[in-house]
Design a protein that fits this description.
Blueprint lengths: L2 H4 L3 H13 L14 E5 L16 E5 H25 L2 H13 L7 H14 L1 H31 L1
Antiparallel strand pairs: 1-2
Length: about 160
């Protein structure tokens, strides 16, 4: 079955309608409710039919935003990867990826807010210093608690 044929499959049509309804027939990038709408796969998986994705992997975009997303994603991902690789080792990058995967978005509107917050935090030296201080305080507190548990265990 070709991809075009798969998009005519009733399983895809049902999934597509569910996503449109979830997103209130609104482009989740620009808010357009008048233009032709598309369902965008945020990621692609090998050997996975369009209807086999998690609903969270799909989002409603207007035709213009969908076209722009498809055109820009490769350049944007490369820029992100290059920036991360310049500053971090592979283990660090894995920790960052785990953190991003842990983000829970309560509604389709939140990712752009999270992206703006991350950008703001990373560009503000005072916030980065405060977060670093809090992180190391947390590590110190964890070490103290672990040492207390170890001593308690050894005294039993």
């Amino acid at each position: 079955m070709t991809y075009a044929e798969k998009l005519k499959d009733p399983r895809w049509q049902k999934m597509r309608l569910r996503i449109f309804e979830r997103d209130e027939f609104t482009c989740r990038y620009c808010g357009d409710v008048e233009s032709t709408l598309h369902i965008h796969h945020k990621i692609y998986r090998n050997n996975c039919d369009p209807w086999e994705y998690e609903e969270s992997d799909l989002i409603t975009l207007c035709e213009e935003c969908h076209s722009e997303e498809r055109e820009q994603i490769s350049k944007t991902v490369k820029a992100l990867i290059d920036a991360v690789k310049r500053n971090f080792f592979s283990g660090d990058i894995l920790n960052i990826a785990i953190g991003f995967d842990a983000i829970k978005f309560p509604s389709p509107y939140v990712p752009e807010v999270i992206a703006s917050i991350i950008s703001w935090v990373l560009q503000d030296e005072n916030i980065m210093q405060e977060l670093s201080d809090r992180y190391f305080d947390n590590l110190k507190e964890k070490r103290i608690k672990a040492e207390a548990r170890r001593r308690e265990f050894n005294n039993v």
